[in-house]
Amino acid sequence: MASDHHISKDFMICAGVSLAFIIGTILTWRALALTGLIPIVVLLLGLFLIPESPRWLVKKGREKEFEAALQKLRGKDVDISQEAVEIQDYIATLELLPKLTFLELFQRRYSRSVIIGVGLMVCQQFGGIHGICCYTGEIFESAGFSSSIGTMHVYRLPILSQFHQFLLYIGSFSAGMGAVPWVVMSEIFPINIKGRGGSLATQVNWFGAWLCSYTFNFLMSWSSYGTFILYGAINALAIVFVVTVVPETKGRTLEQIQAAINAA
Predict the structure, then answer these.
(1) Which among 47, 80, 95, 129 is least surrounded, fewest beta carbons within 10 Å?
(2) Cα separation, 243 vs 247, whole angstroms
(3) According to its UniProt record, where is this protein mainly located (predicted)?
(4) SS3 content of the chain, % helix, strand, coil (to 5)
């Protein structure tokens, strides 16, 4: 379920990028930036329709509001009794665990979980995805044809070949490294460090996104071939990292995953 969610998220991101390219051919960049406010306003208005988090309500001891919020999220005809008990048990267990500081994430007993969570985010971003997404137009132009045609239309064979290669890269990323690190991150940390561990991994992810986008032009100025060879080498190292360090999580409980990590 988590995997489907993150794959859908990446699909929607790619759809949004494609839509921006299409709209950008008829609008100035200022008008295009302003159109980005439309989904933000819709999202802001939608926040008033979203109920409070059931887990947060349990943590605050607001039982009646917790059940009402959970029922609203799941649907009025859905039996929520079993899920409600599981959420209450989870929060009760979490409250009994010691509260860790951010620096305590780096204790030896948590080091492997942190290495896996952070390492996957490093592999995801430094493989070049944000540089390629942000500079798709320039990449097409450097290949010798119009960026607007290259990013939207396919009508002659030389473009067809290269266009299907960007599509292949983005599609492979969305189904693989685009989604998997987020799924694994949600499973890899013990529950007492899940919040702080997830925050650390997310910070590394977005720092990597910024750094990849910022350095892309410098790398391309240095060598276009070298840039993609570098990204390819990082992706090859990512495969080695996943094979040798990341444990299998499919069909395993959190306790089984932690046992596999600690045994390694």
Answers:
(1) 47
(2) 8
(3) membrane
(4) 80, 0, 20
